[in-house]
């Protein structure tokens, strides 16, 4: 399997804001460099680095995200800030009122408008990291279009919390949707998200792709609606699980999910894989073990579909390399 690795060292926010104060940031470069270290040590697969990536086309990002949001990440994030020192990570602090559609014309306001939380700060170094991570997902999907059977984009920042026009949960561009959009030219694509957290961003973008413009709401009455969620939802199933689930409990749900994907009969599959389901993850709450990831991957492979794996969460740095190694073993 080809592994598209992007550590993106320069993107390293020192802290995140949680509930009542600043905490060390969980989404750090060591998450990916540890996976890289273990894969090199154990001579696993074929590691491919950003200088060999195909750059994700901006038009593709603009298909899955609001073009104004793409511009915000690519350009405003770099723009000289009037209110906040340029070399600082900038955290969203003001969010849109419910039902507000107004994009503020200032730096602090725009940060909040395009965000859902305070975990996802912006910095001029973030822009390249987000692009490289999305390009890893793009390259992994292009590899499948060229006849590959499996590929794995092991990058950061992750993507599945980034929605049509917002960042969140450490995510800026939705890397899994970049892969889906790339693969779509060859047929139906299914997405399986096995991160600990809900892939709200992926879900949001799938909904938005079902939207139909009735009349351009920017120009015509009623101005603020008509662009989204007017028609049926895509086939989408969530299985909420209680904290503490074990390998066996998880496996029963995984099997049910894989049967549904099999019935859907896609041409290819995109898997959002997060190791924050691991028993000792500092922000997760499940009980999965390192060995289980091999079993998980083996069952996914039984679908016999060309598959792109996309790295999402997983915050136990000491274990993440071994968990990824175990998972990859299941694809071999
Ligand atoms: C991609 C991904 O896995 N994103 C996860 C975003 C989770 N953000 C919430 C993190 C809360 C961490 N702070 C809780 C620590 C309690 N001491
Ligand atoms: Zn997660």
What does this structure look like?
By secondary structure, the chain is an alpha/beta fold. It contains 10 helices and 8 strands. It has helices at 30-41, 58-64, 67-76, 107-113, 124-145, 175-183, 200-208, 247-264, 290-301, 317-329, and strands at 2-6, 15-18, 21-24, 46-48, 150-155, 189-193, 268-273, 307-311. The strands form 2 sheets. It has a 6-stranded parallel beta sheet, sandwiched between helices. A hairpin with a 2-residue loop joins strand 2 (15-18) and strand 3 (21-24). Helix 1 (30-41) packs across helix 10 (317-329), helix 2 crosses helix 6 and helix 9 runs parallel beside helix 10 (317-329). N-[3-({4-[(3-aminopropyl)amino]butyl}amino)propyl]acetamide binds next to loops.
Q: Structural class of the secondary structure composition?
A: alpha/beta
Task: Report helical residue fraction.
Answer: 25-40%
Strand content: 5-15%
- Heterogens: N-[3-({4-[(3-aminopropyl)amino]butyl}amino)propyl]acetamide, zinc ion
Low-confidence parts: 224-232
H and E string: EEEHEHHHHEHEHHEHEH
**Main sheet record:** 6 strands, parallel
State the end-to-end CA separation.
Answer: 8 Å
Mean pLDDT: 90
Radius of gyration: 19 Å
Report the strand count: 8
Shape designation: globular
**Taking strands numbered 1, 2, ... along the chain, how are they ordered across the largest sheet?**
4-1-5-8-7-6
Q: Number of helical runs?
A: 10
């Amino acid at each position: 399997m080809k592994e598209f690795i992007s550590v993106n060292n320069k993107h390293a926010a020192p802290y995140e804001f949680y509930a009542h104060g600043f905490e060390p940031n969980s989404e750090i470069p060591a998450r990916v460099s540890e996976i890289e270290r273990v894969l090199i040590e154990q001579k696993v697969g074929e590691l491919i680095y950003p200088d060999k990536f195909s750059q994700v086309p901006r038009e593709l990002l603009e298909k899955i995200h609001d073009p104004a949001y793409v511009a915000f990440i690519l350009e405003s994030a770099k723009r000289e800030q009037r209110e906040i020192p340029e070399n600082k990570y900038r955290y969203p602090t003001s969010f849109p009122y419910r039902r507000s559609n107004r994009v503020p014309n200032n730096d602090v306001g725009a940060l909040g408008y395009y965000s859902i939380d305070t975990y996802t700060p912006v910095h001029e170094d973030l822009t390249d990291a987000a692009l490289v991570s999305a390009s890893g997902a793009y390259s992994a999907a292009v590899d499948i279009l060229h006849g590959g059977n499996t590929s794995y984009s092991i990058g950061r920042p992750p993507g599945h919390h980034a929605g049509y026009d917002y960042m969140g949960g450490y995510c800026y561009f939705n890397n899994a949707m970049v892969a889906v959009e790339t693969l779509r030219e060859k047929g139906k694509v299914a997405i399986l998200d096995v991160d600990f957290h809900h892939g709200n961003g992926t879900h949001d973008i799938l909904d938005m792709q079902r939207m139909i413009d009735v009349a351009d709401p920017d120009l015509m009455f009623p101005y603020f609606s008509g662009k989204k969620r007017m028609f049926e939802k895509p086939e989408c199933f969530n299985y909420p699980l209680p904290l503490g689930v074990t390998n066996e409990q998880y496996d029963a749900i995984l099997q049910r999910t894989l049967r549904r994907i099999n019935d859907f009969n896609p041409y290819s599959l995109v898997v959002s894989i997060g190791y924050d389901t691991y028993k000792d993850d500092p922000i997760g709450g499940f009980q999965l073990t390192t060995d289980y990831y091999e079993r998980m991957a083996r069952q996914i492979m039984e679908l016999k579909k060309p598959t792109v794996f996309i790295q999402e969460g997983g915050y136990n740095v000491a274990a993440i390399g071994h968990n990824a190694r175990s998972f990859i073993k299941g694809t071999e």
